[in-house]
Design a protein that fits this description.
The chain is of the alpha/beta class and 406 residues long. The protein has 2 domains: 157 residues, VC0802-like; 165 residues, Rossmann fold. 31% of the residues lie in helices and 22% in strands. Strand 11, helix 9 and strand 12 form a beta-alpha-beta unit.
């Protein structure tokens, strides 16, 4: 195995950079930097495996192989050619530039950037391996190039499929929230293991399934494959296997939380049950077909968290005022509860009937949304020794003994 210590770049939804940074800090990384839409930290193959298996709000994990300035295509070619690509790509490796993007830079054509980077990589490897033709019949190595303000970043994608593909969504509904966004939004709230969580427009059950995994300390990447597992030259398979074994040992037998999902569409409630069962948390969440207006709960200090329809995707805008008025009435009737809504509907606060304590700009795909936060009062402190167990990446990191990294 050859350990290459460098920067690791982890993209996320715009607006969730701080959440992802906190996740990494909780896992023991102490030199973490943020850029728009991604977070960077020091590491190599072992750290990439840890991030892939444990991070909840990340979209993928990439090893940064090169960073330099380029204002012309000649400078781009020479900058790429100066990188020792044999550190990453074996003689029979299948490699390509999967995606290129450019922001505020002189080089702006993605297709030209992809072509020139691949050509320069081939030229460098020809000299190193002393061959003129590459069979490319081995494992896959896919790269992503980002040019921002004329600074080039070339990253090797260790994840393969996006990390939002947890593997449990067997019965999706129309326009579900992504798993990574749902997890990131939950981590913006004070909710934790042992507290009540209800999604009254549960759709495919994503918020509740992610919450159950957090409560059980179940790593989101535990059962899915990663591209890095095919990299024998870098020790990727061993690194991921060891991290998954460690993650498996952290799982708690029960979520120990009151998790409930409702939807006016009986099919959505049924789909949510199917997804929860596939995620291994079918016994931890109660799903039922019920209209939002009919929701009530006898207990105190719970959380309403939801991704209601908001016009661009599903609903006719004529129905939205009454939908959000209903959210407002339900929230008011619950007294000491907290409510968190993600919505692109610009009149959300108007029809809820109350200004949010905070609203945070979050991009849900290409849609600009707001995360409206209505925090309720904190519950009374429990007697010493009966405090609810903490959840999430911080507890995973402490129990696994990761310590400080970086």
């Amino acid at each position: 195995m050859q350990e290459n210590v460098t920067k690791i770049a982890v993209p996320c939804h715009f607006g969730l950079e701080a959440v992802l940074k906190r996740e990494l800090s909780d896992l023991g990384f102490d030199r973490v930097a943020t850029e728009d839409g991604r977070v960077l930290f020091d590491g190599g193959i072992a750290e990439a495996a840890l991030a892939n298996v444990h991070l909840r709000s990340a979209e993928r994990v990439m090893i940064e192989c090169a960073r330099f300035r380029a204002e012309t295509y000649d400078e781009l070619f020479e900058g790429i050619r100066a990188v020792p690509w044999e550190k990453w790509i074996p003689r029979n490796g299948r490699f390509w530039v999967r995606k290129a993007s450019s922001i505020r830079s002189r080089l702006f054509s993605p297709s030209d950037i992809q072509s020139i980077v691949k050509k320069a990589m081939v030229e460098e490897l020809k000299g190193r391996y002393r061959i003129s033709w590459f069979p490319e019949d081995g494992p896959s190595y896919q790269f992503r190039v980002q040019i921002r303000n004329d600074e080039v970043s070339v990253c090797l994608d260790t994840s393969g499929e996006s990390l939002h593909k947890r593997g449990y969504r067997v019965s999706p509904v129309i326009a579900p929230i992504s798993e990574t966004l749902a997890a990131g939004l939950l981590m913006l709230t004070p909710w934790k293991r042992g507290r009540i969580l209800v999604d009254p427009c549960c759709g495919s059950g994503t918020f509740l399934i992610e919450a159950a995994w957090m409560a059980k300390r179940r790593a989101p990447g535990l059962t899915r494959p990663f591209l890095m597992e095919t990299w024998e030259n870098l020790g990727g398979e061993r690194a991921v296997r060891m991290e998954k074994e460690r993650a498996q040992s952290l799982i708690l037998p029960s979520a120990e939380s009151d998790l409930q999902g409702y939807d006016i569409d009986p099919r959505a409630a049924a789909f949510s049950r199917d997804n929860a069962k596939a995620a291994g948390v079918g016994g931890d969440i109660h799903f039922q077909a019920r209209a939002l207006a009919d929701f009530s709960h006898p207990k105190h200090y719970g959380f309403l968290v939801s991704n209601p329809p908001y016009g661009e995707r599903l609903e006719n805008e004529k129905t939205l005022p009454e939908l959000f008025r209903t959210f407002g009435r339900v929230y008011e009737s619950l007294g000491d509860w907290s409510m968190y809504l993600i919505s692109a509907y610009e009149d959300t606060e108007l029809y809820v009937g109350k200004k949010a304590a905070k609203n945070r700009k979050i991009y849900n795909g290409m849609i600009e949304t707001r995360f409206y936060q209505y925090p309720g009062p904190k519950p009374p402190k429990r007697p010493a020794g009966t405090e609810e167990a903490s959840d999430g990446a911080a507890q995973e990191g402490r129990d696994a003994g990761y310590g400080q990294r970086g």
